Amino acid sequence: MWGKGFFEYEINNRTSGIFVFYPLLKEKRDVTAIIIIVVSVSIIIILTIKLDIIPQWVDLMNKNILTKVTLYLIAVLCSLLIIGLLFRTILWLRYRPLTESDLENIEWPFISIILPSYNESEMIEKAVESVFMADYPKEKIEVIIVDDGSNDGTSEKLKYLKKKYASLLKIIHFKINLGKRRALYSGLKIAKGDIIITIDSDSIIDKDALKNLIVPMILDTKVGAVAGRVAVLNEKQNLLTKMLSVNYSISFDFGRAYQSVFGGVTVCPGALTAYRKNAIKSILKDWVNQEFMGKACTHGEDRHMTSLILKNGYITKYQSNALIYTCVPSNMIQLNRMYIRWTRSYIRESILYLKYLLFDIKSKRRFIYWCDFILSNVIYPFHILLSVILIYSVLYEPIFLIKQIIFLLCISLILSLYYLWNHKNLNFIFGIPYNMMLLLFFWWIFPYCLLTINEPSWLTR
Questions:
Q1: CB 66 within 8 A of CB 60
Q2: Residue at 9 is within a domain
Q3: What is the rounded CA–CA span in Å between residue 23 and residue 18?
Q4: pLDDT tens-digit map of 140-163
Q5: pTM of the predicted structure, to 2 decimals
Q6: Which pLDDT tens digit goes with each residue over 120-141?
Q7: Helix%, strand%, coil% for the chain, nearest 5
Q8: Which of 79, 246, 333, 342 has the most CB atoms at less than 10 Å from its CB?
C-alpha cells in the first residue's frame, strides 16, 4: 500500500545440521550444541580437580573467623544459585513460543501502537516505517507517536510521517520534556485498541512481531501483558556491543522464557510489550503518579506496570518470536549509566513486588513466584561477598586469585552456552568476557544504587 520501505532487514533463525530429541524439550536441538555443552561441563569438573579449587577455599576459610563466616555465606548462596539455575533450566526447557498456527479462525483485533519519542530524529522514521511494514491488517492499526519535547529535528520528521500515513498516524506534541512515563500515559489515554503495544522510537520491529506478540492474548483472556524479545541492532559495532548482544539474548531467551512457562514474567520491556486494555485501565493513575520515598519515579515504568498487572491477578508471557532490534551502549560511560538506571529501578520495584507477594497477590502461582523471586535475588549478595574475598585473596596469596579467575572463566563459558543452545553460532564466546567484566568491574553497581535509590535522574542522555 505504501510501497517498499527505504530500508530492509532480514533475520534468518533457521538451523541446519543433525537434530535429536530430548525428553524435556518442546523442540529439536542441534547435536553439535549438546556436544559442546557436555565437553564444557567436563572441563569445569577437570579444572576443579586440577586447580585444587576446593582445597584452596578450605585453606582460605581457616585463616580467620571473618573469612570462615564469609565463605560459609558464599557456600550457602552458591548452593542456592545452583538450585535456582537448575530450577529455571528445567522450566526453560519447557518453553515454546506460540505462533499463528496455534489459532483457529483468526480474527485479528484492532490494536493501538504507542511510540514515545525524545530526540530520536535519526531513528524515528525507521521505527515508524517498520511498524507499517509489519504483517498486520492496516485497517486494524492505529499508531500514536508522543513527541516528548524534542529539540533535535524530530518534529520535522514527524510532519513528513503524518503526511505519508495520514489518519493512521496520530501525533501528540509536548512543549517541554515530561519524561517517558508521562509520554506513554498520554498515548494510553487516547488509545482505542483492546490491545495496546508500546514500542521504543529508536528501535525496529521484525515483520512478524505484531502478530506473534498478541497470540497469547487471543488464546487466553488471563494474559495481561506479553513481552517481546529485544535484540541488538548495532551488534557488530565493537566488542562491547557483541558482548551485550549475548547478554540480551540470554536475558530474554532464558530469563523471560522460563518465567513465561508459569506466567510470571516480571519485566515486560517498554521496547516491545503488548498490554490488554482491560488489565491496565484501572491501574494507570497509580502507575503514572508512582512515588517512592516521597519523590516521583522517573524510570522503571515498564517493571512497575508489569508488577501492577501481576498484582491484579493477570499473568504475563514472553514471545521469543516477536522481535525488536534496538541500539545498545557502545562505550563504558553509556553502559554504566544504563546499569545504574536499571539497577535503581530493579531495587525499588523488587521492594514493591515483595510487598505485593506478601499482601496482594492471591494467585495459585504465588508459591512459584516466591521461589523465583528468592532464587533470582541471591546473586547480588553472592556477587558482593565473592568480590570481597577475591580482593582479600590478593593480600593472602596472589596465585589463588589467578586460579579462581581461570575457574570463573570456565563458569562464564557454561552461562554463555544458553546462547549457543538457542542460536547455534560461535558468538556465544563473547558472553565469557562479558560475565568476567560484570564480576570484576561492576560489583559496585548494586551497593551504589542501593545508596542512591531515590536519585531521580534517568541517566539516559
A1: no
A2: no
A3: 17
A4: 999 999 999 999 889 999 999 999
A5: 0.86
A6: 999 999 999 999 999 999 999 9
A7: 55, 15, 30
A8: 246
140: in domain: yes
Question: 225 has which bridge partners?
Answer: 275, 316
What domain range is 119 assigned to? 100-372
Residue ending a domain, among 338, 372, 406, is 372
Q: Which residues contact 152 (CB under 8 A, 6 or more apart)?
A: 119, 120, 121
Looking at the 3D structure of the chain, how many domains does it have? Answer: 2
Residue that is written with C-alpha cell 529485544 in the block: 230
Polymer length in residues for the chain: 461
The Cα–Cα gap between 461 and 459 comes to: 6
Do 286 and 161 belong to one domain? yes
Q: What integer pLDDT is reported at residue 186 of this predicted model?
A: 96
Closest CA to 111 of 185, 214, 181: 214
Q: What is the DSSP letter of 294?
A: T
Q: Indicate the residue type of 98.
A: L
Beta bridge partners, 141, equal 111
Contact of 353 with 266, CB cutoff 8 Å: yes
Burial class of residue 243, CB neighbours in 10 A (0-12, 13-18, 19+): buried
List the grid coordinates of 415. Answer: 552461562
Judgement on whether residues 43 and 155 belong to the same structural domain of the protein: no
Q: Which three cell numbers stand for residue 18?
A: 543433525
Q: E strand or H helix at 145, and its extent?
A: strand 141-148
Residues 365 and 384 placed together within one structural domain of the fold: no
What's the alpha-carbon Rg for the chain, to the nearest Å? 23
